[in-house]
Amino acid sequence: MSLYKIPLRDFQFVLHELLDTSAVMHSCGREEFDAATIDQVLSAAGQFAEEVIAPLNASGDEEGCQFRDGGVTTPSGFREAYRQYIESGWSSLACSAEHGGAEFPTAVENAVNEIFGGANMAFSAYPGMSQATYVNLRANGSPGLKALYLPKLASGQWTGTMCLTEPQAGTDLGLLRTRATPQVDGSYRLAGSKIFISGGEHDLAENIVHLVLARLPDAPPGVKGISLFLVPKVIPNADGSLGERNEIACGSIEHKMGIHGNSTCTMNLDGARGWLVGEPHKGLAGMFVQMNHLRLGVGITAIGVMEAAWQKSRRYANERVQGRSPGSVASADNIVLHADVRRMLLTQKAYVEGLRALALWSSQLIDLSHSHPDADARRDAAGLIALLTPVVKAISSDLALESTLMAMQVFGGHGFIRESGVEQHVRDVRIISLYEGTNGVQAMDLLGRKVLADGGLRMGAFIEQVVAHAQTHRTRPGMEEFAAPVLELARKVQTVTGELIASSMDDPHAAGAAAVPYLRLVGHLALSYTWLRAAQLALAKAGSGDPFYASKIATARFYLRRLMPQSIALFEEIRAGAAPVMDVAALLDAT
Amino acid sequence: MSLYKIPLRDFQFVLHELLDTSAVMHSCGREEFDAATIDQVLSAAGQFAEEVIAPLNASGDEEGCQFRDGGVTTPSGFREAYRQYIESGWSSLACSAEHGGAEFPTAVENAVNEIFGGANMAFSAYPGMSQATYVNLRANGSPGLKALYLPKLASGQWTGTMCLTEPQAGTDLGLLRTRATPQVDGSYRLAGSKIFISGGEHDLAENIVHLVLARLPDAPPGVKGISLFLVPKVIPNADGSLGERNEIACGSIEHKMGIHGNSTCTMNLDGARGWLVGEPHKGLAGMFVQMNHLRLGVGITAIGVMEAAWQKSRRYANERVQGRSPGSVASADNIVLHADVRRMLLTQKAYVEGLRALALWSSQLIDLSHSHPDADARRDAAGLIALLTPVVKAISSDLALESTLMAMQVFGGHGFIRESGVEQHVRDVRIISLYEGTNGVQAMDLLGRKVLADGGLRMGAFIEQVVAHAQTHRTRPGMEEFAAPVLELARKVQTVTGELIASSMDDPHAAGAAAVPYLRLVGHLALSYTWLRAAQLALAKAGSGDPFYASKIATARFYLRRLMPQSIALFEEIRAGAAPVMDVAALLDAT
Known about the structure:
57% helix; alpha+beta; homodimer; 7-stranded mixed β-sheet
């Protein structure tokens, strides 16, 4: 029984047919990423995922991480798998050539990240955090820090973390208390305690590079007084060899609902030596480079986990014999023939394939924002990816939760048994709606910072892009059924966005009360746009007789007819406004 | 910190004000259940729940059941708690007087079941299954079996189980293979293997009464050849003392996502002696007495678990300080002041209070169906409870899952940590959508057996009841806002029911493709009707100044404005029909 198999054909459809990755990278002056090269990477990633890390997924969950004497032991097999991971060059896939990286496009990097996340979320979160640390340091570090640390992070010889949260400061980082005191040599001494540090301690690598938020002595209060520091577990010598152990240590690890194989650490800094990254008091902005990288990254991990659960449930539905399908003459049929089971399978398929295309398109926007020769195109791509990042993070994780729960439902009572493997996906993926900013925080980021802040300009541009595309294609043969509902939804989002811009001027709670359903609504717009594009491509190739395209068209139809109507309810929920939410009487008896 | 506190005031509102339990029981010739008596029972149940079983909830989850040498050890403290449970008379609360029971109304019994389920679902599932066994045997057993077994089940000295599922036969019981061979003394010898038997083995009681489905040698194939047998773990002597050990034994227990403290057993019958319950080949109908009892029962347990999670999340929201609320001058506020957190709290409140009222009203219908002096009233109540049972089971468990996940979300990252206690509720409650018939099975039961089977007669009567009530009350002061949306929804359900009756004649898959969203739609109708009645009562008493009523009104408003719009989406999903679900191409590439 295969535990996880990469959806190679669908990756090819998205990367080659929908996104035309090679041509896009070519237009950015990068000619080496032809389809064959990308396919080689996908296949190699698939092999590593299927053969090396997927087999450690259930055992890693069962065994978990162990904390003893300040050290963390990862589950059996993780060390050896990590060694193979870095030896195969996966950690440096998208890193800069100057640090030893292969500079693959973000769209390919994130396809690979989906594969590893789907095969073993707990394992892949270690290098996932390192990648984000690399990106942060590359963007914000001094030349000296970069030269010393980036090649080690790229090679995977050292791993990275992000140390933000404290017991009293989670969503509200303005409340953080960790202090940094300047030293005469230009370094700092940090004191404080951080919690929920993913990969804060483990036995996979010889050193761990912590990026830590802390306050300088002269820091103003709140988020404007936060600075970013690099605090290595072991202080390297100038040549990169390991020097003395730093005063940062793991105090305990958390016992969690899921991702048992990934250590979640309390990190105590007791005069730990650190180096400033970027400007004093500008640490939060610096950290947001890492945070945004992670938000897209964990959204993509969620898609991988959905894929894994969807594979299990569709295999089960094709094997399990139970009940007679209407019109059948068998005493009982495979449950895949029952309408309600098909509904659950198609819901998963429509979500996972739609989200994959959306997330990899978003990844391509990052490539364009960095590398497109035209400055306007770079700026537009950057604007759109800023808008889409919270959407992809939140809707992928929310739908991954729904989808993995549905995969369990296909298994009936067997889904509740750990042996089935499917309930682990639910427990693992649950964290993604909670970390790197809860999905409520993503929703406020979208509505507050990305939509209301510019008077709806960027959102308007996105809606226009969708409308223009739908209008162009609706008159082509067979496209009306796909284009019409997308147009209708785009107009609804336009309406409600305008209403929210107006109501938020009068009511300070309007945005907060609307944010979560608004993000979901925009998510459905993005998904429906993605399915429209997929349907259009598949229709053009349906004559080939490849059942892949017929399935795409049918799945697009299922999404638009049976799932997209959810957006109407969201529209109504938003329009009901903040008054029912903020009514003081409502929670009076609940204190 | 309180782990669980009974929502006494809300139980009083539902039982005394909304359902007028005393008067209704009085009309059924039972005068002893005045409000004070009911309150005494609720308070005593609350004390037992809060002091005895709630403290064992987390430790029971951590420790789980242990299987060794054919025996099952329940978590520490469960044995002593069970001893207290039966000594306090909880097991016989609603049993017949002739078996030592107190004959309390089902509405009160189920209020108590919600309390125990909320405080400790894994523990309360043992006596919950015994109650269902009692009800089955009372309805179907011979006088001899009843005399021997019912007093012991009522007292809790022995517990009960239901043995249906086999590895190849879950939803489809027609596939079951366990055989029963008649013996000369009128008993039977049973051979076969059953799985997923809740409480199949444990250390709480000296004997376990299994009700087992099996086939007689001359049985026709499929569900029409299933008979029901009583198979005791220890065969009692005629005087009720324990005789010899029977050949039924636990082979293993399952490792599950949740309810770790409740044993889920594989039971092997190796020539076990059993006694026929009811008629040969009519066992499934007999077992449905137990199944229907359990379906309502587990729906009520789900409500208890939601209540527990909602209590934790509202306490956390009232204590956790993070972020500034718009207009506040504090550096940070309790998160209960943030609109999005309020949205999550009110969603839980609206669901749990609405479902409680719905489930206890359904319980009252059982009382009326048994005890009302008028035969027509008994028949009407029986018809309505048959309709509502799958609705309450499925919507309570589905919304409990959503609601407990939302409780986790209020906790942010802390919700993922086991110590918070809230993730356990998600893991525990997840089983309820899966067992006693998956929620897909409930939906087919509703749409197929309860709606289509009588041409929509019973459903039409229910819709009429809702419409008549809403029309009567909409003209009263302040009621328009509550009555109008309920009327609109009722008409939608009426429309879609008619459409489904028509389409299911042409398309054999129409019902299967619509069933789950249809049940959810009917669930929202039932909930909205319940909230309409609650709002109307609360409006009448709002002048009292009791903040409880103001909160009820505000919660009704929140439900009707912000949550009920979901029903529009369900309506559209149903109307999209079976074609997108049954499209052969859609899952072609997913085998």
